[in-house]
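Lecture 7 notes. Example A: sequence first, then its structure tokens.
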Amino acid sequence: MDHAYRSSWPLIVIVLLGLITLSGCAKNTGGVTASSATTATGNSTTAVLTKADQQISQQKIAAAQKTLAGASESTPAIKKLALGLKYYQEAEEALDNNQLSLAKGYFDTLSSYDGTTDASFIAARQKLVKQYQAVKLANGYYNAARDELSIHDLATAKANIDKLDDEQATHPVIKKLQKKALAMKQAIMNYEASQSTSSGSDSSTVVSSSSAASASDSRTSSSSTSSTSADSSTMTSSSNSSASASSSSSELTTSAIIKQFQDASGVTFTSDTEFNITKETSAYYQITAIYATNESSSSASKTVTDTYRYYPDSGSVTKENSATGSFE
């Protein structure tokens, strides 16, 4: 009996060792499975981000957004890049439509966004911001040329047209403005040619051509052009047409105009700044901002001024250069 009991011990030990070994294998298998799942998720995220990065570098922003949206798991990195592309697309659309007042807010948001370090996104953003700055400059030249032409300052108008023409067309909006400016320049050349043969030639040709060139920019300018061509080709008729258009635009209250100007300018004015509309045309309002020079709020102390031109149709604002007298 004792001998039989002793002979069973080796068998029991073998069985116990087998069970322990199987248990260890099961644990290891579970660990490998969990690790494999984590690795697969990481690889999937990396693949999505890599593909989106390549698409962004090729300026395929919509395709990159689609790639990120189709990720099997939306990780923080994917979400942040997708948000950055949303800001990019909003700014790009406003710029394509030459809506500078609207674009300003979008570009402020886009420029300050630091949620992603994706290299292609950062490069694309820098390129778009440069285009935005170039479009703003081109609009300044175009608006200045149109304004000077409306008051028959042909030399200054041509100078601004030449500046616009010298700008590199890094964005389609610049190309469109250059094309419109060429129409104004041709009108000036036609007028000057007519003056060389007839000193008494009427100057309304250049005014009418100017109105036609800027007709697509604003409803008011279009109205002025139609009135000029229908009524008379004289300078007096053109002036009356402009006055009529200005009267129509003056339906806005002064406070409403000032509010729109402040929003479009992007300038933070103090509460004691005073504003005066010193000039009104069919295309813009000329507004003078008067600042207090010291803590006193008396009118006598408010001697520092800036002069702006606000274009309600495009939402753009130019500021007078005190050194040159031109609006930029």
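Example B, a different protein, same format:
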Amino acid sequence: MIGKLSGTLDDKNPPQVIVDCHGVGYEVLVPMSTFYNLPELGARVSLLTHFVVREDAQILYGFATSQERAAFRELIKISGVGPRTALSVLSGMSVAELAQAVTLQEGGRLIKVPGIGKKTAERLLLELKGKLGPDIGVAASVANDSQADILQALLALGYSDKEAAAALKALPSDVGVSEGIRLALRALGK
């Protein structure tokens, strides 16, 4: 398996790039988030990759971050979601946005991605719940350290990710930890 490519960026044509590694040019399909962050042609580039072998093709998918690659791998494990659809999802939203959509069970955000219908969005929400990593989900909904502490407190008290994130969203951004927990508990108690 090819896990990483480092070389010279020879060509950029969305969603495909060609990376020259010591005279061998590798075609790599990348999500748009990675594509927009690529350097100029002729510059050195390093991509984490996922290698897919099919009966009729061998395809490399490249990612700028390990979180993107991990999300891609989780997406392709889902029945009915292939590498192209997974690439489309990661092109349509960042990993943090995907994690937040899954945490808050917002299928409407997923439906906006080309190639994702209502049933596929529901399947993604169900299958990805808890699989994108707690650090990604927390980072998506937390603006500062006090909000992170409030979120952790609510989760420790047994509230679901969705309930805790919704309560956190309703709080003022400059609220302190103890006051934030009190306000969140009051909101959740209604």
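Note on Example B: The longest strand covers residues 4-13. The radius of gyration is 19 Å.
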